[in-house]
Structure formats: structure tokens, C-alpha cells
Amino acid sequence: MAGKETITYTPATSTHYGDMDEFAQHKPDRAMIIGSGIAGMAAALCLSKAGIEAVIYESRTSSRDSSGSFFGIHPNGRDVLETLDIADSVLAGGIATREFHFSNHKRSLATIPTDIVTIERGAVARGLLAEAVNRDIDIQYNKKLTTVDQNENQVMASFEDGSRAYGAYLIGADGIHSKARRAVFGESPRPYYSGMVRSSAITENVLGIKPTYGTTNMIMGRNAFFSYLVRQDGYINWFSNRFDIQEPLRGEIEAIQQADWKADLLHLYEDDNPIIKAIIAATDVQIQKYPVYDMPLIDNWHKERICLIGDAAHTPSSKAGQGASMALEDAIIIAKCLRDMPDPPQAFATFESLRKPRVEALLRKTRKSTDSRTPRTVVGRFIADLFLPIDLKIANQTTRRMYNYHVNWDELVKTNKH
Ligand SMILES: Cc1cc2nc3c(=O)[nH]c(=O)nc-3n(C[C@H](O)[C@H](O)[C@H](O)COP(=O)(O)OP(=O)(O)OC[C@H]3O[C@@H](n4cnc5c(N)ncnc54)[C@H](O)[C@@H]3O)c2cc1C
Questions:
Q1: In sequence order, what DSSP letters do the residues of 241-266 get, joined into one string?
Q2: Any idea which of 3-12, 205-214, 353-362, 371-380 has the lowest mean pLDDT?
Q3: Which CATH fold topology does 194-294 show?
């Protein structure tokens, strides 16, 4: 049973990385997953549903994962949670968002239907963890992957603490700055700064603003974008996208004092709907702030017995909020491939051929349609505002079709269809 034993070995004498003799001494047949984010956790749960035992290695020092603010789970992500029978428990604290209302600094522009559960990242992480504990999945913390090596039968993972682990194959679910990706495919291509810095918070509605009941407001401000929804339980979820900051140094944005950051945001929204400034000024919890990175499409997601999923393979446009839902799709499809294909290399090749066209089509669509940058000139703004309602409606029809995506767990994976 998973979780009862460990297959992490600390080498006693040999420090020779990639020692094939050392491979030969261990014959573990379990899956190794690097990273216990949404992709890694969901993959372990889907593998468990398929009767495959997996061990997760996570660099964080504990199971506590309350980082991040909130994101959206779209119908395609919810579908996977439903297949796992955990949609209700994982999404319990979420808020159903039925429409986006777009406006600029002075008028309403468009209302677009949607079907999203807006929820704290930490709540989803806790829900997945609870189910992993239920299923007795072995999660090892403080295991920061440094290198990987493989032969024709096994994979060896080495960690920063000097320990090693062996498995029949390895799934790299270690996020956008994935070490697994770099270990297998090298440093190029690498994530790049998207030019956008996001701030967000969930703050008490001390202003007494009326709940927005299923509507999320999207305001194309003069200098930056702002989104908010007012919950019925007395809280406001808001985020801001700004584009006026040159690529920051690592940790630079995060280190800025709250008071300074707040003052800066208030200044940015000086000429916009006054509700923005009121919400920011009334925020007395820590405002999360971070530069957003994107990844170019990469040629391959797998090499023999190692395969990438989630942000490690294809960084979502974070602007589209599809990161978690696409990670959930990856998790269920890779588990099906491993369940149905004769060996891991074939499973990973099939996974990649099934997933890549859909993921890349979605990325292309959402990257184009979710640029929340406001043109700098009056004429540019006029033209953008004129076309925005039409652009949004067209983009929305396409993306909603793509988000209404069902993966049939019971259908066998044979060739390029699932
Ligand atoms: C701290 C954090 C906060 C986030 N906040 C938001 C947010 O507010 N809004 C939003 O839309 N998206 C947010 N995201 C991104 C969002 O979670 C992902 O786009 C999506 O859920 C897909 O996740 P993933 O599991 O592929 O990658 P991630 O969520 O990035 O998870 C990767 C996991 O791998 C672990 N890891 C990284 N390197 C190693 C290593 N070398 N060895 C072992 N483990 C490693 C990380 O600790 C993490 O647990 C956040 C991600 C993180 C990590």
C-alpha cells in the first residue's frame, strides 16, 4: 500500500551521478511525481484511481500550501474533479461566476457569459491533499529535485538533500520553472517575463458594497486592468494587472512594502472608476504581488520514461486562468495513458500526441484574446473600446466550446484518441 514505505535512498558511498550499477540494484515499479501542486496531486489521484501507485516528491518543507490567491476552475477542470468524485469537497468554498462585465474608465462595454468557480488556490490544494491522505498516497516533503537520469527500465531522481529515489518513470509536475524540464531538455526555451505584474487580495467588504451575485467586473483602466467580485459572505476578491514595470529582479516585487505598493496602485487608478481606489484603500490584508511569466511552446514534453505535465509542460496564459484546469486535464489523460498503454515510453508518447494539439490551440486562442493592456493613446483606446465587445464575444464562443471538455475515464486509450 502506498505511503507505508519509502523508496528514497541516501547513497552511502557512491556519489557518482547516473551510476547504472546503482540503477540495477533497485527495481521499484512505482511512479515518481515531482511537485505536489495541482498537476502533481491530481496526477497521483488519477493514477491511484487507475490502480497505479505513485510517490510525490515536493520541495516545500511541509504539506501546508496556502500560497497564491484565487483562480478559476472552468468546466473542463471541474469535469476531472467530478470523475474523481471530489468536485463537491474540493470546490466547496468556491464562488460560481456566471458572467464577466467589462467596462472602461467611464462606461460599460460588454457582458460575456461564463461558467467558472472562483476559488482560493490554497482551498483547492487542501482539498486535493485531503483526498491524497484518504487514498494513502505517499508525499515526501523537503525533496527538491536537482537532477534526473534514466536507463531503459528506470528513472533516478536526485534531490538537494543528497538523497535519491528510483521509479519506473517520472512525471515532472514542478511548475513553470521546472527542474525536471531543464534536466531533460536543457535551459532553452525558458520562461520569460510577460511584462505584467499581478496584485491580488481577498479582503473584507468594510465598504458595504452590494454583492455582485455571479458577476465579475473587469475594468480596462486608463493605466492598468482591475477585476473584482463582491461575495455574499462579506468579502471582495480583486486583482490588478499592470504593465508599467520593467522586468524585475528575482524577489524584487515581493519585497516592496505593502504601504508603498498600495500607494502606487492608488496612483495608477487615479482617473478610473472610484470603486477601484476604494477597494484597494480598504484592503487591510497582505496584497499578493508577483511578476507573471510565460513560456514559449516547447517541442517535446517527454523523453523515454520522463514526462512533463501542467505548467512544467505548457504555461497557461495566466491571463486566461486556465492553468489549474489544464493541469487537471493533463493529470487524468496521463493516468489513462499509463493505465492502457503497454509501457511508460509509449504512454508518454501517446499522452503528448493527444494533449499537444488541444493545449497549443487553447494557448494560441487565449493569449490573443486575454491581453488586458489598455492602449496608451486616446485614439488607440477609442478603437480598442469599439472592437472589444465584438472581439470578446467571438473569443468567448470559441473558448467556451473548448472549456466544455469531457474526458471519458472508462474509454480505453488506443491511438490518438481518448
Ligand atoms: C505558490 C504558487 C502560487 C500560485 N498562485 C496562483 C494564483 O494566485 N493564481 C493563479 O491563477 N495561479 C497561481 N499559481 C499557478 C497555478 O497554481 C498553476 O498555473 C496551475 O495550478 C498548474 O499548476 P502546476 O501544478 O502545474 O504547477 P504549480 O502550481 O506551480 O506547482 C508546482 C509544484 O512543484 C513544486 N516544485 C517546484 N520545483 C520543485 C523541485 N525542484 N522539486 C520538487 N518540487 C518542486 C512546487 O513547490 C509546487 O508545489 C500559483 C502557483 C504557485 C506555485
A1: EE---PPPPTTTTTTS-HHHHHHHHH
A2: 3-12
A3: D-Amino Acid Oxidase; Chain A, domain 2 (3.30.9)
Predicted confidence (pLDDT) per residue in 167-185, tens digit: 999 999 999 999 999 999 9
Determine the distance separating the centroid of ligand 1 and the alpha carbon of 5, expressed in angstroms: 27
Q: How far is the centre of ligand 1, averaged over its atoms, from the C-alpha of 21 (Å)?
A: 35
- Cβ neighbors of 349 (< 8 A, separation 6 or more) are 302
Tell me the CA–centroid distance for residue 174 and ligand 1, in Å. 7
Residue 379 is predicted with a pLDDT of: 59
Full-model pTM: 0.89
Q: Residue whose CA is closest, atom 17 of ligand 1? A: 324
- Lookup: cell for 167: 521509479
What values do phi and psi take at 267, rounded to 5?
Answer: -65, -40
Whole-angstrom distance, CA of residue 253 vs CA of residue 291: 7
Instruction: Provide CB contacts within 8 A for 111, sequence distance 6+.
Output: 99, 100, 101, 102, 215
Atom of ligand 1 nearest to the CA of 35: 34
Per CATH, the number for 8-93+122-191+296-403 is 3.50.50.60
Decide if 32 contacts 167 (C-beta within 8 A).
yes
Euclidean distance between CA atoms 166 and 151, whole angstroms: 11
Q: In terms of pLDDT, which residue wins out, 215 or 415?
A: 215
Q: Please choose, from the candidates 212, 183, 227, the residue with its C-alpha nearest in 3D space to the C-alpha of residue 18.
A: 183
